[in-house]
Amino acid sequence: MSTNNVNDVEYNYLFKILIIGDSGVGKTAILQRFSQNYFSAEYLATIGVDFQIRTIDVNSKLCKLQVWDTAGQDRFKCVVSSFYRGAHGVMVCFDITDLQSFRNVNNWLEEVKRYCQENTPVYLVGTKSDLQAKRMVTYSTIKAYADERNISYIETSSKTSENVDNCFSTFATELVKHSDEWKRPPSIEKPIIPLSNDTNPVTNGGCFGGKSCTI
């Protein structure tokens, strides 16, 4: 008889993902498009935090994503900071038509370093890719920035839905890999201790002659 409970059957992985970035860059829009396939051009600032849940398939494994949309205004930072704890991954968003929002990515990465566990996966997300005519930061500049910091980068449009699902599925794949590596016990190699001519042979243990001893 199987001992799996209902939750075990519903998903194989549960990941808490934070979406952070300046106010107005489209954090809420990307979450709404991903969770509800919905887009609204009307801007409403997030008050504190909000979250949505969606389960997706990653290499035949069900991943339940609990995605938290955070307020970008400074006045909410003291509230939002507590939600970094326990995050399995963080999406840092900026608007490709807003140069300052890209420059502020450094500040958001510092927030991740300050409040999240060490080596928490980060995904850099450029929003509003449908507005190429208004673009203020070149793709090559952003990609070089991401590569220098060894983080992945993707451009999305919540309005057209371009790369939104791909963004979350790619990040979930990275989180699965990170989770599996974290759970894997480290391999322990038995040390080889060389014996010199001046070393008396051990006769009451596990070494009998030879030039080395495995313990």
From TrEMBL:
Q: Name one GO molecular function term.
A: GTP binding
In terms of InterPro entries, this protein maps to: P-loop_NTPase (IPR027417), Rab (IPR050227), Small_GTP-bd (IPR005225), Small_GTPase (IPR001806)
Cited Pfam families: Ras
Q: What is its main location?
A: membrane
Keyword Nucleotide-binding part of the UniProt annotation: yes
Could you tell me the superkingdom of the organism this chain comes from?
Eukaryota
Q: Where in the cell is it found?
A: Endomembrane system
Q: SMART domains, per this entry? A: RAB (SM00175), RAN (SM00176), RAS (SM00173), RHO (SM00174)
Look up the record and report any one GO term of the cellular component aspect.
Answer: endomembrane system
Q: Which UniProt keywords apply?
A: GTP-binding, Membrane, Nucleotide-binding
Q: Which SUPFAM superfamilies match?
A: P-loop containing nucleoside triphosphate hydrolases (SSF52540)
The record ties this protein, via NCBIfam families, to:
small_GTP
Q: Which PANTHER family match?
A: RAS-RELATED PROTEIN RAB (PTHR47977)
Q: Specify the protein name.
A: Uncharacterized protein
